[in-house]
Amino acid sequence: MVKWLSVFIIAFVIADNSYAQKNNLVIEGITPKLFISHKVISKENFYSISRMYNVPPKEIAAYNNLQFENGLNVGELIRIPLTENNFSQSESETNAKSLPVYHSVQPKEGLYRVSLNYNKVSIITLKKWNHLQSDNVSSGTSLIVGYLKVSKNESPLANKGVKSNTNGAEDTKTETKPEPVKPDINPERLPPVKNPDINKQEKKDVPETDEHKVTKTSVNTKSNINFSGGYFKKLYNDQSENKTPVSVNGNAGTFKSTSGWQDGKYYCFNNEAAPGTIIKITDNSTNKSVYAKVLDAIPDIKQNSDLAVIVSNAAAEELGAGDVKFDCTLNYVK
Prior knowledge:
With 334 residues, this protein is of the alpha+beta class. Helices cover 20% and strands 24% of the residues.
């Protein structure tokens, strides 16, 4: 009897853990094709899954290239599309229950990239939902990036183990708290970034959030600006104290930004250093240096294939490089 009771308890614990792992709704894909994966269990069909996720049954079939008439098989993995009808990144619908949808932060991924991948959700909003004090997030952290809107009366998710937030971002009592993140040495907001020339990206690829909108005013292109390396020089020196920085040679490009012209706050894109890292960038032809904070990885497009870094045009101006590619040396601490 004791033996069977032990087996039952172990089986119950395993089942309970398995169920708990399924409770968090995890977002997949990138804008505009965002979805949640769902594994079909016994007695489920297009209609029951439709009620669960607030998506029309035939839309689920079409999204998965399935024949609606053929039904579903137990164990089949299907994708549930996240659309404006069932996915919110602002205020919750009054007739729906909102369930947090999570993204797991990848190595060298910052809030800028998360915002870009998920409908340009405001970085201010991401910080509020996840109780963040800075733009730095640790790899593996679960971030709330939006809320699934389901019917209170029809969806089993509304009454089961998935933790919900019926009032959107304002109600944080029932949210799953994210893992602790490393505090930024100098917490601050991202600068307003405009990203046309060297990257040749359309304006829609730059997340115009409440925190860093592309401004309509003209950039001050006053020549020969000199902030003695810029605002982040002291932070770089603090980071590098008693450490040997990594040194890399390569080509640098530029992007247009309104930041840096008045305050010397320079920013850059780089594939090796994590977002938030301060990089010392030296123009090898002028031997001048600036210190720039990494926003994110370099956009993966053909025009950037030979670049080691992309710096704001204000930083390039202080280096004496103008808006053309230039040979540089990068120094930073991992």
